[in-house]
Structures are given as structure tokens and as C-alpha cells.
Design a protein that fits this description.
- It contains 8 helices and 5 strands; from the N terminus they run αααβαββαβααβα.
- It has about 290 residues and is α+β, with helices and mostly antiparallel strands.
- It folds into 2 domains: about 1-65 and about 155-215, no CATH class; about 70-150 and about 220-225, Alpha-Beta Plaits.
- A 5-stranded mixed beta sheet has the order 2-3-5-1-4.
- A hairpin with a 2-residue loop joins β2 (about 100-110) and β3 (about 115-125).
- α1 runs antiparallel to α6 and α6 (about 155-180) packs antiparallel against α7.
- The chain is elongated, with a radius of gyration of 43 Å.
Length: about 290
């Protein structure tokens, strides 16, 4: 009896996997049909468009474009006067448009006593404000390079939706089979398959969430750098003493004499206490020695 029950559970598992595969194929076909409908394709649509004339086909084309799931990215490289001020201004502009700073980096360069900054700031803004914010970013300095790119992820999202629907249906069936299984081997087999299906569902859900987030919030990467300060380390030829002008030489001599006199006066002031303390005893000894 146990052997018959084990075979029945194994057979049910095989049938379930086959049905899930068939359902996956059907889901992919449905995804393709949905994508075709979103593109405004199909012979029926074409016939209706022809019968209604060009006035109906134009709105349908515009609608299909609006329904596409587009990821928009922009990159701009700027030469700015003040890195910190530009970054602060762009951050405030992004916040007013419902955006935020995703990533940022900054580097301080040094040359002698001079410094300048460079770095990169990544902004995420709602897709409806992408063009306005990108234009404002380009106006914050001298544009050295800029480009935009658009990626259509409609087909990916449609495919993910279909695959998730099939996997969730398969998960429900596996859970029902797991609850009704009593044989240890069958329970372990169903449990492993259920774990694999759940892991795949979570992976696809994360991918779907990431794609939807990239569609909802466009990315603008702004690379900035301040102007490099001019170098003042010019090597000048050392002038000989006879290359100086007469007046300049006379003034330098006066300064030199003044420096020497001041040094003598200061030196005498330092030496006077020593003469006062040591000079009298030494003088007395000398006088006594001469008398002897």
C-alpha cells in the first residue's frame, strides 16, 4: 500500500512539472500576444486602422508609444567654477522635482599651494522631469560632453509577468501536493522543488522591481571638475650682482649697512653683562700680575 502511494505521489509530481512546462509555453505566447497588442500590431488592428483612416491610426501609434516601458539615462561632463556650489544647486533642483542623489564621489587635487576638486554625482529623477532636469544640469557650467540613451524594457517586463504567473501557479500546486504527501521521500522531493520555485520567484520579483524602478526614475550622471589653477613655478634666471641698477644697488647697500650696525649693537648688548661680570675680576688679575 505504501509503495502504491509513493508511486502515486511521484507520478503526480511528474504530471505537475509537465503541466507547469506547458503553462510556461502558454504564458510566453500570451506575453508575446500582449506585447503585440501593446505595439498596436496584428492583422485585426491593421484592418481597423485602414477602415477608419489615418485619423485613427495616429492616436493608436501615440498611445502605443506612451504605453512602452522606457529606461532613460543621461550623462553630462561639465567644467565648473565651484564644485561644491554646483553640486548643492543640482541637489536642490533634483529635490524640487521629486528626485534624489543616488551616488556621489569627490576628489581633491593639489599642486603646490593650490587645490581644485573633481567628482561625479548620480541623480535619480521622475521620468516626467528627466528632460527639464537634464537641460538645467547642462546649464550649470561649460559642457564638455553630453549624451542620452533610452532602453525599451517593455518585452522584459511582459515576459517577467508571465513567468511569475506560471511560477506562482506551480508553487500553489506544489504546496497542495506537499500538504497531502505522507511518504518521507515524496515530501523531501516536493519540498526541494518548492524551495527552488520560491527562490526563482523571489529572483524574478527583484528583477521586476528593479526594472520598474529604473523606468519610474531616470538616471542623470553629472561629472564635474573645477579649472586647474595656472602654475606659478616659473624658473627665473638668477641675476648677477652687477646686473642690478645703480640706485637699487645703493639702496641695497644702505640696507646692508643698517643690518650690520643693528647686528653690532645687538651683539654688544648681549656681551655687556658678560664684560660686567667677568671683566672686573680678569682686569684685577692682570693688574696684579703686572705689578709682580
Amino acid at each position: 500500500m505504501a509503495g502504491s502511494h509513493r508511486r502515486l505521489v511521484a507520478l503526480s509530481l511528474v504530471v505537475l512539472v509537465v503541466l507547469a512546462g506547458c503553462a510556461g509555453m502558454g504564458g510566453n505566447d500570451a506575453a508575446k500576444n500582449d506585447a503585440a497588442r501593446e505595439n498596436g500590431g496584428g492583422s485585426n488592428h491593421a484592418d481597423r486602422g485602414s477602415s477608419n483612416g489615418q485619423s485613427d491610426s495616429a492616436p493608436q501609434s501615440a498611445l502605443s508609444v506612451q504605453q512602452r516601458m522606457l529606461v532613460r539615462n543621461g550623462n553630462v561632463s561639465l567644467s565648473v567654477e565651484d564644485f561644491e556650489e554646483t553640486r548643492t544647486t543640482l541637489t536642490r533642483l533634483a529635490g524640487k522635482r521629486g528626485g534624489f542623489v543616488s551616488d556621489s564621489s569627490q576628489r581633491v587635487h593639489r599642486r603646490g599651494n593650490r587645490t581644485w576638486k573633481s567628482g561625479e554625482v548620480v541623480f535619480r529623477v521622475p521620468k516626467s522631469n528627466f528632460s527639464a532636469f537634464f537641460d538645467r544640469a547642462k546649464g550649470m557650467g561649460d559642457v564638455e560632453h553630453s549624451n542620452t540613451a533610452t532602453i525599451d524594457v517593455t518585452d522584459q517586463l511582459v515576459d517577467l509577468k508571465a513567468r511569475l504567473t506560471n511560477l506562482r501557479s506551480q508553487r500553489d500546486k506544489l504546496r497542495s501536493l506537499y500538504e497531502n504527501a505522507s511518504d518521507t521521500d515524496a515530501v523531501l522531493s516536493v519540498q526541494k522543488r518548492l524551495s527552488d520555485v520560491q527562490s526563482e520567484i523571489e529572483r524574478l520579483e527583484a528583477k521586476q522591481k528593479s526594472l520598474k524602478n529604473r523606468v519610474a526614475y531616470s538616471t542623470v550622471t553629472v561629472t564635474m571638475h573645477e579649472s586647474v589653477p595656472a602654475s606659478d613655478t616659473k624658473v627665473s634666471r638668477e641675476k648677477s650682482w652687477y646686473d642690478a641698477g645703480v640706485v637699487a644697488a645703493f639702496l641695497d647697500s644702505i640696507d646692508s649697512v643698517a643690518v650690520v650696525l643693528r647686528a653690532l649693537v645687538v651683539g654688544a648688548a648681549y656681551a655687556l653683562p658678560y664684560f660686567a661680570v667677568l671683566g672686573i675680576p680678569v682686569g684685577a688679575v692682570v693688574v696684579f700680575w703686572r705689578r709682580q
